[in-house]
What we know:
By secondary structure, the protein is of the alpha+beta class. The chain contains 12 helices and 11 strands. A 5-stranded mixed beta sheet has the order 1-2-5-3-4. The protein binds 2-acetamido-2-deoxy-1-O-phosphono-alpha-D-galactopyranose (NG1).
Amino acid sequence: xxxxxxxxxxxxxxxxxxxxxxxxxxxxxxxxxxxxxxxxxxxxxxxxxxxxxxxxxxxxxxxxxxxxxxxxxxxxxxxxxxxxxxxxxxxxxxxxxxxxxxxxxxxxxxxxxxxxxxxxxxxxxxxxxxxxxxxxxxxxxxxxxxxxxxxxxxxxxxxxxxxxxxxxxxxxxxxxxxxxxxxxxxxxxxxxxxxxxxxxxxxxxxxxxxxxxxxxxxxxxxxxxxxxxxxxxxxxxxxxxxxxxxxxxxxxxxxxxxxxxxxxxxxxxxxxxxxxxxxxxxxxxxxxxxxxxxxxxxxxxxxxxxxxxxxxxxxxxxxxxxxxxxxxxxxxxxxxxxxxxxxxxxxxxxxxxxxxxxxxxxxxxxxxxxx
Length: 371
Ligand code: NG1
């Protein structure tokens, strides 16, 4: 018997660039998914979660997903990911609990999948290292249909309390960046569900492939390689003259966002709140105008936050609904929250607006539990 806990995450900056292997800056939340596990003698996995129908399957080669949108697919995805790298001989009883809202851009699906992977590994007596997990988890998510990047898995596993996490890809490398005291973050739900298992999936994948095609058309192996080989202004000129609208928008967003992440990390290290906020605002503009993944409600929410005294605000996660991340100084936090409630929610926001404190990832939580 045992328990694993995997938090959700909020991405501070670096949106839709992880799948181009460019660095991002998320942080883990205090809200999490917990899975109690009991190992079984046979290969069956029985998964239960309050409010959902129980699911059961066997650990064997060629596991097939249930219908699209079925919560059990994340449990299967967790199992499939683990089986890529390790031999699992025992199934488990899994009981899932969550304080993390679903489809709000907070990585609840990644947290669930990752928690199931960790629970099944523990039930089999296997201790996995971060790099080993990162080699299978992002790909495992493809089981539910999203060709995502590795940001969410890295953030929910390796975040440290009090820090944001700078994540580099290929090879994977993480660096905790302490959040200066006096800085405050909120997560605000737009109320528009961003169900990645449904129609949004195709739109997300389309952005990814358009970016790759853009790089290829300009003669580069990828956007990261383009940034390594050419200067940004030169790339902008090439994009303007040689790419059609969709590819151009995706390409320009990605190269701009990569620069903003670099500057935002420096601003955080230097405690420059004004500059950090500006990069967040620019990121939202780019997601809305170039990548086109925002929606009217998210735009209104971001505007309400800035009008209420936030230094920066932007949609967070894949977009198409979900949540915004709001950044302000601690001394203004109460006023900003009140302003957002009045301007956007038209009264008390309830659970739709909450403070996001930089929290520990699953690995730190496990280490603490074992200490
Ligand atoms: P969300 O939708 O917030 O889980 C998705 C991807 C990320 C990243 C962001 C956009 C998955 C599991 N997550 O995040 O890797 O690409 O969109 O920055 O695919």
